[in-house]
């Protein structure tokens, strides 16, 4: 039996329970405003998930847990492309992680990716009965009940969080006196407090710590409840909530109907000039329309001093990419470790080059990098 519809009319709790009770085998496709996910089921249990969101790739989770370095991830991904092996298997063979660690992190990745969908405001779903996932990944066998309960709990949490921390543009600062009275702190609390400087936005913390948006916001919310941080700017001025218009614009981009996507995005930005996701997508569309294919083998370098860079007004994603420019890695290398989509990365690089913040050089020896970087 096929099942499809809108998440506004049939919630994820009901969908997952229907699949579990019916012991269904197949693939549940979930389409949000910006990303698509495919959850594989076998006899009512979850076996794997595929996500178009680069923040949910296995490599990003391994970096978040400090199990590998960015250099090790870049090198392993290059091997994966050449040899068509699973990333986890490559890292196990290199004795960088154990099989038990990979399994634990893969399960966490699957769970967090599903929990994220419970926080979507808009989206659609379709269950492909009997379909195979065709995804090369470590297979799990997760019970739906626990995931549904946790997803529902996070939905309730998110409503409370958003009343205090209203968006990714929120800024918080630590309260030193209160912190001193609470020592020693939990590891996650200490880590995030050390990164708060009264200027860094929440969305920048999400990138820096490579943690799910929910977890960063929950940590900050709990610290605020304990009186350990103060809110300097509650945020919510970026129009972050996805909209049906944004979903339509994304679909148009996927179909390469760029002019129509641009018009849809213009309508959004006319009503909400600071809509973060619409602004990001517009930058990508404009770059694609210009049809300026940036050579990914070029090596980016800073065209300004570090002092100038620190005082330059950069968005979180721009700052992330600029901080990875070392004069040795090619654009292609940086793309492999970035927690956002390739088109967005290329659009950001083009923008930073046009602004005179970055410059590029051709790789030496006909494009071959030194062995130490391969």
TrEMBL record:
This is PatA-like N-terminal domain-containing protein. InterPro entries: PatA-like_N, T2SS_E_N_sf, TPR-like_helical_dom_sf. Residues 4-159 form the PatA-like N-terminal domain. Residues 244-271 form a coiled coil. The keyword rRNA-binding does not apply. The keyword Coiled coil applies. The lineage of its organism: Bacteria, Pseudomonadati, Acidobacteriota, Holophagae, Holophagales. Keywords: Coiled coil.
């Amino acid at each position: 039996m096929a099942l499809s519809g809108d998440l506004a009319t049939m919630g994820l709790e009901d969908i997952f329970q229907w699949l579990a009770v019916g012991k269904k085998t197949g693939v549940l496709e979930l389409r949000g405003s910006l990303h698509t996910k495919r959850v594989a089921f076998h006899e009512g249990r979850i076996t794997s998930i595929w996500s178009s969101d680069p923040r949910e790739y296995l490599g990003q989770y391994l970096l978040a847990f400090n199990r590998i370095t960015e250099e090790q991830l870049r090198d392993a991904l290059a091997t994966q492309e050449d040899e068509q092996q699973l990333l986890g298997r490559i890292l196990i063979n290199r004795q960088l992680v154990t099989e038990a660690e990979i399994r634990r992190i893969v399960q966490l990745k699957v769970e967090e990716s599903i929990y994220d969908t419970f926080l979507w405001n808009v989206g659609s779903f379709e269950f492909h009965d009997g379909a195979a996932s065709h995804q090369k990944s470590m297979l799990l066998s997760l019970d739906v009940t626990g995931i549904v309960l946790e997803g529902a709990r996070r939905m309730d949490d998110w409503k409370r969080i958003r009343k205090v921390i209203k968006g990714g543009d929120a800024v918080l600062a630590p309260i030193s006196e209160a912190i001193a009275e609470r020592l020693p702190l939990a590891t996650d609390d200490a880590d995030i407090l050390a990164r708060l400087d009264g200027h860094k936005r929440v969305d920048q913390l999400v990138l820096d710590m490579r943690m799910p948006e929910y977890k960063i916001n929950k940590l900050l919310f709990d610290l605020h409840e304990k009186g350990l941080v103060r809110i300097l700017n509650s945020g919510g001025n970026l129009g972050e909530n996805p909209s049906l218009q944004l979903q339509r614009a994304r679909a148009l981009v996927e179909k390469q109907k760029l002019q129509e996507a641009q018009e849809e995005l213009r309508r959004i930005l006319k009503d909400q000039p600071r809509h973060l996701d619409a602004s990001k997508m517009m930058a990508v569309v404009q770059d694609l329309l210009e049809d300026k294919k940036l050579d990914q083998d070029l090596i980016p370098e800073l065209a300004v001093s570090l002092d100038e860079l620190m005082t330059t007004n950069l968005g979180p994603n721009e700052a992330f990419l600029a901080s990875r420019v070392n004069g040795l890695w090619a654009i292609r290398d940086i793309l492999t470790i970035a927690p956002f989509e390739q088109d967005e990365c290329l659009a950001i690089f083009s923008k930073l080059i046009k602004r005179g913040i970055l410059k590029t050089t051709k790789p030496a020896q006909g494009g071959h990098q030194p062995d130490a970087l391969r």
